[in-house]
Amino acid sequence: MKLGRISVATPFGPVTRLVAVDTVESRVIDLATAEILRLQAKGATQEAAQRFASAIFPGSMSAAIGLGDIFLETAHEAVQARADDASTATSSVNWLSAIDPPVIRDGLTFVKHIKQFHERIGAEPTEALLEIPGYFKGTPFTAVGHDAEVPKPFYTDYFDYELELGYIVGRVCHNLTPDEAQRAIFGVTIFNDFSARDIQKLEMKIGMGPGKGKDCAFGIGPWIVTMDEIGRLDDLEMAVRINGKEYSRGDSAETIWTPGESLAYMSISEYVQPGDLFASGTVGNGSGLEIGRKLEAGDVLELEVSRIGTLRTKIGPPEEKRWWPERRRKFW
Fold first, then answer.
1. pLDDT tens track for 255-297
2. What does the pLDDT look like over 303-331, one tens digit per residue?
3. Distance between the two ends of the chain, CA-based, in angstroms?
4. pLDDT exceeds 90 at position 122
5. Are 289 and 123 in contact (CB under 8 A)?
6. What b/e sequence results for 76-97 when a residue is b if at least 16 CB atoms lie within 10 Å of its CB, and e otherwise?
C-alpha cells in the first residue's frame, strides 16, 4: 500500500489528511472520509463514524502507525469499500512530508558513495565505518514533501542534495536483533538529505556532527510504500534529474550495513519510536558533490526510485539574512 499526507484547505485553515495513493488511477483516497462512509453504510451514526475514523486516521502518520496492525487493516477495508467516494486527483493535492517523524536518523551505508565522497574531499574513509553503523540525528521540523519549495540557505555557497532511502519504523524498538529490527520496518520512502557543504565541512571539524549543514531541509516523500508492497530493498534503481536533465543513476545494492542492522544498532539502550525515520545514507552518484553539480535558486530537483516514485523539489531564493556569527579571536 502507498500512504501519504496532504493538506486540505478549510474555512478554518489547512487540515492534514492521511491518504492512500492509487498511482494507476492517479488519485488519492482520503482514508478518514472513506472510513466514515464505510461505517455509516454498516449502521454507524455520522458522529460515531467520525469519532472512530479520526482516531484511526489522524493527521499524524506517526500516530497512525503507532496503532499497530489495525491502522493498515482498516485502511485496506476503507479503500476497498469506498475509494470511489473519497478520491481526489493526484494533480490537485498539496503534498506534505510523507511522515511526521518524531526523530530523523541518517546513516552512511552505500559503499560507492563512501568511496566517491572521500575521493572528492581528498580523504580516506575512516575504519570506524566498519565497526558500527553510525548516524546523526536531524530536526524533524524542516521536513518537506513532494513539490515543496526549499529556500537556498543564505549562508551557503554549496547547496547540495543527497538521494537516499528513508525507512519508517513500525513499532517501538529496544535492544533488537537485526532480524527483529528488519521485521519492525513499516515501509520505505525517498529521503533527500539537503546539505550545505561548506558549513558541513566546518561543523565536522568541530567533531560534534552536522547541524546547520544539514538541518535546513529534509525532503520526504512523495509517499510511503509498505514493506509488503516494496519487496526487496537491494535492487531499487535510483536517478537524479535537475531541470529535466538526468545527471546520474545508481542502485540500492552493496551496503556495509543492512537496514535491519542499522535499526538494531539504533535500538541498543534506546527506544526507537513508531514513525521514526532512519535513512540509508546516499546512494552512489546520488549527490551533487560526486558529479560536480551545485543547487541554485530556480532549479527543479527530481529524485526517482523504482517501485516508490519521484520526489520533486524546487529551490527557492534565500531567506533574508538576519544574523550570522562572527569569527572569534584565537584564545588558546
1. 999 999 999 999 999 999 999 999 999 999 999 999 999 999 9
2. 999 999 999 999 999 999 999 999 999 99
3. 58
4. no
5. no
6. eebbebbbeebbbebeebebbb
- Would you say the C-alpha torsion 243, 244, 247, 251 has a positive or negative sign? positive
- Angle subtended at Cα 59 by Cα 56 and Cα 60, rounded to the nearest 5 degrees: 85
Question: Cell 509498505 maps to which residue?
Answer: 226
Rounded to 5 degrees, φ, ψ at 259 are: -55, -40
- Please say whether the dihedral angle defined by the alpha carbons of residues 117, 122, 125 and 126, taken in this order, is positive or negative: negative
Residues 144-168: tens digit of each pLDDT = 999 999 999 999 999 999 999 999 9
Q: How confident is the model at residue 117 (pLDDT cuts 50, 70, 90)?
A: confident
Whether the ω angle into residue 101 lies within 30 degrees of 0, i.e. cis, is: no
Pairing mode, if any, of strands 237-242 and 277-279?
unpaired
With a CB cutoff of 8 Å and minimum separation 6, the contacts of 90 are: 21, 23, 26, 27, 28
Cell numbers standing for residue 58: 489522524
Q: Give ∠ CA 250-256-261 in degrees, rounded to 5.
A: 115
> Which set of grid coordinates corresponds to residue 185?
520496518
Q: What is the DSSP code (8-state) at residue 176?
A: -
Residue type, 239: A
Give the C-alpha distances (Å, rounded to integers) separating 201 from 48, 118, 121: 55, 12, 10
Contact present, 150 and 315 (Cβ < 8 Å): yes
Task: Residue count of the chain, please give it.
Answer: 332
pTM over 0.70: yes
Set out the domains of the chain in order of their start, with CATH numbers. Answer: 2-95 (no CATH), 104-316 (3.90.850.10)
Q: What is the pLDDT of residues 32-59, one digit of tens each?
A: 999 999 999 999 999 999 999 999 999 9
CA distance 316 to 11: 28
Do 243 and 119 touch, CB atoms closer than 8 A?
A: no
- Please report the pLDDT score of residue 262 as a whole number: 98
Is 70 exposed, middle or buried (CB count within 10 Å of its CB: 0-12, 13-18, 19+)? exposed
